[in-house]
Amino acid sequence: MKITNLRTVTVDLPLAKPMVTAIHETRSVGCVLVYVETDVGLTGENYIFTLNKDRLQVFDFMIKSLGHHLIGQDPHYVERMWDGMWKEINPIGHEGISVSAISVLDTACWDLVGKAAGQPLYKLFGAYRDSVKAYASSGLWLSQSIDELISEAEQFIAQGFRSMKIRLGKPRISEDVERVAALRGAVGDDIELLADGNQAFSPDHAIRLGRQLEQFNLGWFEEPVVAYDHIGHAKVAAALDTPIASGETEYTRYGMRALLEARAADILMPDLQRIGGLTEFRRASSLAAAFNVPISTHIFTEQSLSIAGSAPNCISVEHVSWFSSLYRERVVVADGLIQLPQRPGLGFSFDDDTVDRCRIR
C-alpha cells in the first residue's frame, strides 16, 4: 500500500449556541479536513480546527507544505514520516501551526493503518478497555444564567452523562461559587462536576476560589492560571485538595514533560491537535504514566477514543458535539460511558453531505 494523494477541504461548522469562556467567544469552528488516499482504495481521514475559522488558510497551507513526506510512502511507516516532518519544521519552531499540521497528517495515516488491518486502532495499540467515561463539555458556559445552567445540566443527564464541566471566570469569587453551588444542588452528589478556569485567574485568586469550591467535591479544577505559568499552576496544586488539570495548551511530549517536572498538574489533558497526533499522544500518555499521573483527552472525542481504549492511565474523554455532524457515525453515551467503536481505524468517516453543505468555497 502506498500513499498516492493528499487532499484537503475547508469547512465552517456553526455552533448551536455561542460558546463563551473567560478567554473565548466562538460562534463556529472552521476545520481543515484531510484525506490521505492510497493505491488500494483506502483513504485515511482526519481534521484540525480553528475557532471562528480564524487563520484556517494558514493551517491548510502548512498541511500541504508537509505532504511530500507522505506521498509515495507506505502509511505503516507513520513514525518515520513523523520524524521527517519534525525535523523539517525545526527552523520555524516545534510548537504552533506546524505541529498541528503534523498532527492531522499523522492521525490520518494511523486511520489508514487500522483500515488496512481491519481493526479499530485501540486494539492495534494494545486494548485496555472497551468503554470509557465521557464528560459533557458542550455547554455550561460563562455567559449562561444559573437557570440556564441547571436546564442544560438536566439535558446532559437525560443524554446519558454522569459527569459534566462548568466554566468559571466571573469577576467576583462569590459569583463563581454561587453558580457551582446552584449546579451541585440541582444535579445532586452522584453527578461528577468538573470546573474550568480557562486560564482566567492569578494563582492567589485561583487558590481563594478553589478553597471555597472544595465543599462541592469537584473532580478537578482545570487551567486555573495561564497555561505557560507552570510555577503558578504548581502553587495552586500544592494549596488545594481538588486535583488540578492542565496540558491542553502544551505541545508534544516535551511540553508535557515540563508540566510533570514542575508538578503543575495532577491530571494531564493532551489535545490531539497540539500534542502532535496519535504518534506523539501515545508517547505523552506513557510519559505521564511514568510519573503516575492520569490523563483525560481534550476535545477530538472521536479520534481520542483510540487513546482512551489503549492507555491504562486514561480516566476519561471530553465529549463535545461541535464536530459530530462531520461524521456518518455517532458517538453514543449511556450511563456515563462511551462504548469504543469496533469499526476499522478511527472508526468514523466524513459525511459527504455535511462536508458539501458547510464547505468554504
3D architecture notes:
The model has no long low-confidence stretch (mean pLDDT 97). A 5-stranded mixed beta sheet has the order 10-11-4-13-12, with helices on one face. The protein has 2 domains: 3-118 and 353-358, 2-Layer Sandwich (Enolase-like, domain 1), CATH 3.30.390; 123-339, Alpha-Beta Barrel (TIM Barrel). 38% of the residues lie in helices and 22% in strands. It has helices at 56-65, 78-88, 97-117, 121-124, 146-158, 173-187, 203-213, 230-239, 252-261, 272-275, 277-290, 301-308, 352-358; strands spanning 3-20, 25-38, 43-51, 131-136, 163-167, 192-196, 221-222, 244-246, 267-268, 295-297, 314-319, 333-334, 337-339. By secondary structure, it is an alpha/beta fold. The longest helix has 21 residues, at 97-117. A hairpin with a 2-residue loop joins β12 (333-334) and β13 (337-339). The protein is built from 13 helices and 13 strands. α7 packs parallel to α8.
